Amino acid sequence: MSRQIGARAGSFLGAMRHLTAVVSRPLHSWSRVLGRLGVALMLLGSGASVARSKMPPPMNPPLEPDEREVVAHDGAEPLFLRRLAPGLPVGARTGSSIAFLPGDTQFVVADMDNHLLAVVDLATGHIQRTIGVNRRPDRLVVQGHIAYVTSRGGRSVSMVDTRAGTVLRTAEAGVEPGAIALTADGQVLLVVASASSEVIAYDSKTLSQRWRAPVGVSAGADDRTRFPDAIAIDPKGKKAYVSFMQGGRVDVVDVERQKVTSHLQLPKNTPGTPMARVFGGTEERVPNAAAALTVSPSGGRLYVAHTMVNTGAASAMVMAGGYGLGARVPILVTIATFDLESGTLTRNDVRSAAEDDVPVSPVNGDKAHQFHRHLAFQEDAEVRGLAGPAAVVHDPLHARLFLVARGSDRVVAFDTAASDPIGRPMAGFAVGEAPRGIAFNAAGTVAVVHNAHGYTASVLDLAAPSLSVNPNFAGTESRNIVVGKSTLPEEVALGRRLFTSAKDTRISGGNGFACASCHPDGRQDGLVWQVSVGPRQTPILADRLAGTGPYNWLGTEEALVENIHRTIVRLGGSQLEPKEAAALARYVEQYLPPVDSPHRDAVASNAAVIARGRELFHSAEVGCSSCHDSGRGFLDGVRHEIGTTSTREVELWKNVNGAKVAPGGPPQAVVPPQQQVVKPGDIRFQNVDIDIVPPATERPAEAPVAYNTPGLRHLWASAPYLHDGSVATLEALLTTGNPGDRMGKTSHLGPADVAALAAYLRTL
């Protein structure tokens, strides 16, 4: 079929506009369009006239495919990228936990648990050698046979000879270094230190430091822009893009000027998935957990993988008991696409490919409508089922973007010829446990996926038909290679699995949650969630739980296992077996990754100020230590009423008691219209898991409310503060956040003493 098929003559050819529009799309698009057209023609019958399905128009017209990136190949093969200037292959510039070595016969993996790199033969699956590096190697980038690897626990970056199996050089790299990238010319190595919020540049030959620059909150961003976790470099090496685990922006770093020069704002209020188009909601969502990003081969586009979160802040459904007060899929994974020439989002009101130009007949329109809705839900379910974005990489050869979803053990390919790829999923691959990195061979025919908790690498055959023409997203790995072994006891490994996976309905009944969704690596998401008893700030779990009962903000559970059961109720899960709950409790108590603090070194450099802060903390005049006992994790196990009951909690109590509704009240009070009744044949719910809205099993307390004393370990990393997250900084907590001196006596402190006390608290 040639490009001349675009001659739009007659009403019948008008129905073929979709074919013309996608003549330069990959084969999977051709197959999908032809399939839909064939079904539509069968539905027409003899002599029936063709009519367009009446679908709501998009909020904004879609942009044209990005012709800067792709070139058609006779419509017979997947869309090829334009041939670009020589340089490092796309995908090789941005670090991952896995990378191919020259020749593509071997790949190297960063094994964080075993503190080493493993060099693996692709053909045989044998580990050729292991190379010990500093503590908890995170990500690596390869140039020739040299691998540069960050060690999150060792505060370092190392240069490793993968052939000789030796570490050549090691340099200091800030606090909790993770993301790493090379400029296109291979001369400059960039490392992102997450805890110290900075980008550090090195000479790639000597590993000598060239410069370092603050990013996020350290560069003057709002207090929510914290913990940088990913970096990508444009093909010319002039700019780098840094995204954050907390907050909704991307910092643009000018590599030559050595500083942040501008920002890109991630989308707000729109989920950014086809589900928003199907149900047509306008719910409020905030961007968060931007854990991965990549630049397209020509440098024209930036793709940022992140979440869109509905915390329930704007919800009126006060009787729902779950996180987000019954929000449909509270956490959604999406990809924000920026046009880097204009610095704007290409489009953030996605509609599904299955809604485009499907001809139906007046007689059989319902069947055709159901058919294309069925296809839409196949795409939507693939996107909606993603959890824990960990990596996103552009195919080196074709117009395809691969997203690695750690919480759902899945990799999904998206079509980058579309104006907004998140609405064009091409294929999904089931991989191993907790994937966190992906690498491509130079030919673009094979990808290897690092499954961190399974200690395996999934080999994906990208030339297989499943990627191009499979409409059911049933791609699978072609091989599974063992690349390491677990260091955890069996019970703890089970606990980690339960903590990380968002697929277990015993924990989350259809809402796509995992413990790690709000507590990545045992940390916190920086958000305030609405539940039936009021707003709740997400606390840090790592190094805060053992022996610190009672648990939760109201101190209702003496045992951690019982608090886990309470949390699962809020998630809508069907509950774990006792042995499993005990395994999860043991993991979060004893085995969560440690938190490294950028303030631990301040004890020496700022000794006098911190000593003054410690003195104030323990003094009778201030009285912090009377409740925050340093011998018990800086808590006392007692509830205190300190005047911090929020207005939201007061409203909830009035609504519940005014209506005299018992917990778990009437279904109509908790279930949105699209979630209440599923009638037989209702196309909206075919092939889609119906969300489970947890009942309100907790009754809000009447004000004033007494709250459990929180521990203070890692306070520097746990903003915002108080149970409702109403205070942004420690300085505010000690001044305007403590009216009436109910939380220690701080009103008499001058600015210098407030600063000293805050400095001491950050060292805890």
Structural notes for this entry:
By secondary structure, the protein is α+β, with helices and mostly antiparallel strands. The chain folds into three domains: 262 residues, no CATH class; 173 residues, YVTN repeat-like/Quinoprotein amine dehydrogenase (Methylamine Dehydrogenase, Chain H), CATH 2.130.10; 106 residues, Orthogonal Bundle (Cytochrome Bc1 Complex, Chain D, domain 2). The protein is built from 17 helices and 37 strands. The strands form eleven sheets. It has a five-stranded mixed sheet with strand order 25-26-27-28-32. It has a four-stranded antiparallel sheet with strand order 4-5-6-7, with no helix packed on it. The protein is globular. The N terminus is likely disordered.
Strand portion: 25-35%
Number of extended strands? 37
Tertiary shape: globular
- Low-confidence segments, given as residue ranges, are 1-66, 72-77, 83-88, 348-365, 367-373, 468-472, 662-689
Q: If you average the pLDDT, what whole number results?
A: 79
* Main beta sheet strand tally, sense and closure: 5 strands, mixed
Cross-sheet strand order for the largest sheet = 25-26-27-28-32
First-to-last CA distance: 69 Å
Oligomer: single chain
Helix content: 10-25%
- Based on CA atoms alone, the radius of gyration comes out at 27 Å
Number of individual domains: 3
Number of separate helices: 17
Structural class computed from helices and strand pairing:
alpha+beta
Brief account:
With 764 residues, the protein is of the alpha+beta class.
